[in-house]
Amino acid sequence: MKVDVEYLEFLWPVKTYLITCGNMASKANIVAVGFCMPAAGQPPQVACSIGKAFYSHELIEQTGEFIVNVPTEALKRAVYYCGTHSGRHVDKFKETGLTPLPARRLKAPIIAECIAHLECVFVGKLDTKPYTNSDLKPNIANKALFLGEVIEAYADEAYASGMLKVEHLLEGGFPRHVYGLRFK
Ligand SMILES: Cc1cc2nc3c(=O)[nH]c(=O)nc-3n(C[C@H](O)[C@H](O)[C@H](O)COP(=O)(O)O)c2cc1C
Fold first, then answer.
1. Domains annotated on the chain, with CATH
2. Is the whole-model pTM more than 0.90?
């Protein structure tokens, strides 16, 4: 069962998130993001960076919404897959076996296997300057900072009683493990 939570308890520096976007009925997509930070308190807002050429970028602008899902170590292979394939070419739910479930208020699905979900209305984006200090391809180097207002925050009941100890989600090298995979 999912219960209401304090969204801040699920944001932690250098964690990894799975953002869902699009529509549960058609064109639902998942993108891995390495950071998601609190950006405002009242109303609560979060910020994350998403590549300008990415399918999720396009879907979020079209639909005006996205959902931040919190994965655990057990999902690291799915996180890696969602972070290395584009929804333009594959159905990431189908390929990873992750289960889409209806969200409370938005059209995008949540991911059943994730422990917490922040439903966000897209507030706006800020185009940022491309990364130039690496050999990143232009489609990866050009990003924009997305801002979302958190309208619902809920989690599996097991993770919602009292203060969440997010540290234990980092045990076993997650998400560093996923970044490790990335360069293999
Ligand atoms: C662990 C991990 C973290 C990532 N973090 C980000 C991020 O914060 N911002 C970003 O734009 N891309 C990030 N990526 C890359 C995207 O997830 C990836 O390019 C994805 O294929 C884009 O999918 P889409 O075209 O379906 O939107 C990350 C990838 C991995 C594996």
1. 2-65+74-159 (2.30.110.10)
2. no
